[in-house]
Structures are given as structure tokens and as C-alpha cells.
Write the C-alpha cells for this entry.
Amino acid sequence: MRSSAGSSSSSLPLRSPSSEDPRVTRSKCTVIETTRQILKEKGFGGATIEAISARSGVAKTTIYRHWPDPNLLMLDAFAFNRDRILFVPTDDLRADLCDGLRVLANDLSSDEWAPLAPAMFEASERDAAFRKVSKRFMEEKRHPLSHRLTVGVERNELPPDTNVDLIASMLAGPLFYRRLVSRQTIPKGFVELLVDTVLSGVLTRQTLAGPLNKRFR
Amino acid sequence: MRSSAGSSSSSLPLRSPSSEDPRVTRSKCTVIETTRQILKEKGFGGATIEAISARSGVAKTTIYRHWPDPNLLMLDAFAFNRDRILFVPTDDLRADLCDGLRVLANDLSSDEWAPLAPAMFEASERDAAFRKVSKRFMEEKRHPLSHRLTVGVERNELPPDTNVDLIASMLAGPLFYRRLVSRQTIPKGFVELLVDTVLSGVLTRQTLAGPLNKRFR
DNA sequence: ACGTTTCGCTACGGTAGCGTATTGTATAAG
DNA sequence: CTTATACAATACGCTACCGTAGCGAAACGT
């Protein structure tokens, strides 16, 4: 599952109709980029129209012209349009899952969008529109994993009764947890340990109720 | 690991010195409870002193009297003082872990503090004081798991090289993930599947690189 | 019953952000 | 070159919230 498309740091986060006035496109992009920046630094509280206008150099009136409701701007700021990373499944399930998780771990460690995520979740908690954007974004993030697992089931690398959705949560969850909840680092080798543990578990799953053989040492 | 103390829904979230004027105690409790309520409903944006005063019936001046800085109030609102749940390890590791995770899953499904969590993470992202409170709180939440795992290693139920911290992340992470990130439910049986998978993985851990035997069906 | 503390209430000046209107300028399209 | 459009800049009224001050009433400890 080698990555076949790097994420570009294009400064054109919006797909804009080519019929659009270039001035409009430029303003929009500047504003969105600035908004994202402020959201990262100060969170929702700091992302006022006035602050965005001041830092971006785009006049307040222009911002209102393009986003009648400031919430629409926030939504656009969240709805990235990064180039999608394509994963091509190899025949090595473990390596593919590790690759996918490593990309995720990287994203979570960088400041591309991780510092923005908490604000996104906060907004999602109480607003359906944000919930929608956030959900779609997160589904994209985890798609490579789910996809590879699905393929794995089809190829009989995994048991036919494997619940792909739940296993994907077991793989992605711990990474998010450490970044956002416990605020610990994701140590070197964690991704591999995680994949090995979950994968071994899926392949040899058993219910270990009752006292265990104390076989260690 | 049966739970030996239920969580009380006491309306006295603060430990207050017994020497304190009962009126002070009452005001403080009312304000904190109201603040928590508003934070759940409207998030940080809605938690203004005026709103808290209006809904709680406690005068603005009184609030400022007790919390010179509104941020201190927010911190107090986050720093619950619920009765600690005590887990007593049994000799059934699996059952103990399931118990611990079920409590967590319950908390995450209820509206005791789960709706508040996103606001907490948002605040933690940019403020050290919130980070501290949040971290302590989360450590408490996960303590039963870590503790039981540590005991498990001591009792030779688990391999001696088990990294308790990382395994705890693998157990708690997926639950948080589904509640906060992917916003999916935690389906019945997930906790058990999770414990069985991770535990099996830990006990039989192996590196499954390369093509797998396609042994299914 | 008493003095003290804390309270709720109202009012106040100050600030930040909102959303709109206006005006003159730069720039793209024809 | 001309015209239409998008722009920046400024000003404005408005609202929400801030944080403080002063007051009389209520509730506490003794």
C-alpha cells in the first residue's frame, strides 16, 4: 500500500469555478487560509471576522460579500480539499495497515490540521453542519484502513466475520486518543505494535475468561 | 474487578472547607452546576458570566467575588470531584478489563461529562491550565485499566515486557474515538470484542509481515 | 437579639465584535 | 480605451459582554 500521491501544500484550498473572477478566488483563498491559521492559534474564540480581516488584509465587507453567514466561512475553513492520498493494496496486509496508520500518525503529529481538530469536534458537538463536515473529513482519513481491511476479508486474509468498521476503530482510535485525549506522544514503534497486536488478536481471537495460565517467567 | 462505589449525582461538586459560610458554598455550587450545564449545551461561546448569572440566579457580582478571573470558574467547572470508582482486581483479567471499559463506555454514552469533553479538549489545545486539569481527569478515567494491566504483569498474566501505557491506549482509545471523532455509537459487544482482540494480540503477539496464509473459507 | 457577612439588584462606563453603507480606486473583460 | 466589477478603507449604529461600585435586604454565627 505505497502512497502514490503526496499531499500538496497548495495555497488553493478551494476548488473554484474557472469562470470566477481571479480577484474573488484570491480573496477567498487568503481569507480561508488566514481563518485556518487563527483557528489553530486561538481557537474559535479568536476567529472573529474583524480579526480575520485585520490579519488577512481583506476588507470586512469583502468577507461578508462571500460568506453572508460567518459560520459558512468556518465550514469552508474546515472543509479542506487536500489532494487525496491513494493507497494501492499490496499483498502484505500488515505493511499496508502500518503505512496507513503511519500517515495518520504523521498528520496527527504535524500542525497541518491536528491543532484544528479540537475546534472541529467542539463545533460538531452542537451544530449539525459542522458534524457533517467533520464526519466526512474523518471518514476520508480512515478510508485507507477500512478499505484495506475490506480487501483483506475479500482475499481471505482475515476471517469472513470480521467487522471492518470496528477493527478500523481499534486501529485509528488509539492514535487519536493519544494526540487529543491523553495528550501523549505517539512513540516510535507504536504503530507497528498496534497493528501486530490487533492483527494477531483478530486472527487468533478467543475469549480469555477466567484465570489465565500464568505462563510468563 | 467489581465496582465498589457507584458514582453519586451529588449536587455538591466542590469540596469546601467546613469553615465556609453555607451561603458561599451554595452560591459556588449553583454557579458551577449551571456553568457545566451551559458548557454542555452551548459550548464555550455560550458560557459568559452574564449568561451564567442569568440562568443560575446568582448575581454577576457574586460570581466575580468568588472567581476574579472567569477562566478560574471554567477550570472549576471542569475539575469534577465525582466519587472515585474503586476497582478491586479479581483473578479474571478479561472480566476486569471489560468492567473497566464498560464503565468508560457508559460515561461516554451518557451526558454526565461526555458533551463537555470536546470543550475541554478545545481549551486544552491552547491553555496550559486547562491542559493540566484535562490530563489529570483523563488519567483518572483510565487509571482502573492501567492499574489492572500493571497487576496483570505482576501476576504473570501478561508478558513481562508488556507496555502498560500503550496497551491502555489501545483499550481506551477506540471508545473515545467512536464517541468524539467518528461520532458513531459504541455497539453492544464492542467492549468484549475489543478486550478479546487486544488481549489475544498481547498474548500471542507476532509480526505478520508478508503474504498471509489465506486460511479462511 | 446582635453584628457581620454575603447576598441580589441596579446602574455604569468601557470594549469588542457585528453587519451595513458609502466612496474612491484598482483591475479584469470586451 | 471603456465599462463593469471587485476591491480597500472608513465610518456608523447596534448589541453583548465585561468588570466595578453602591445599596439595602437576607441569612449566618454567636
Remarks:
- Residues 5-13 of chain B have pLDDT under 50 and may be disordered.
- Residues 21, 23-24, 27, 57-62, 65 of chain B lie near DNA strand C (CB under 10 Å from a C1').
- Chain B is about 60% helix and 0% strand.
